Amino acid sequence: MAKINSSRFGSITVDNVTYNHDVYILPSGKVEKREYGHTFTKDQVEHALKEKPDTVFIGKGTSGMASLSGDARALLEEEGIAIIEAETPGIRDKFNELTKTKKVAAIIHVTC
Fold it and tell me: Where in the sequence is the domain holding 10, given as residue range(s)?
């Protein structure tokens, strides 16, 4: 289970390790690099679903400018996965709370 310590423009700190790029956080706690982009694609959602989470957080960037594509949203809805979208700094507390009781993944954009 991973814990988001903090985030700011251009970086996120997970389990006391700072990443200066977009990331996936998987239910196992593994953090992986996400290809940079302002749209969360179906392929990226499929990657986040590989460990079968109950909930997927979408960290939309510091100003909330990134977005979930229509086909990515449809996939999550088809699978019955809860979606929590917010500006990246705003997901920390809820993410950390839910990881205690649910299988949670996140796809996080760290700029804009």
Answer: 4-109
Per-residue pLDDT of the chain (112 residues; tens, 9 = 90+): 899 999 999 999 999 999 999 999 999 999 999 999 999 999 999 999 999 999 999 999 999 999 999 999 999 999 999 999 999 999 999 999 999 999 999 999 999 9
What CATH number does residue 78 fall under? 3.40.1230.10
Strand order of the β-sheet with 11-14 is 4-8, 11-14, 17-19
pTM over 0.85: yes
Number of structural domains, the chain? 1
How far, in Å, are 24, 49, 90, 102 from residue 20 at the CA level? 13, 23, 18, 27
> Can you tell me whether residue 81 is helix, strand or coil?
coil
CA 86 – CA 24 distance, rounded (Å): 15
* Alpha-carbon span 50 to 60, nearest angstrom: 21
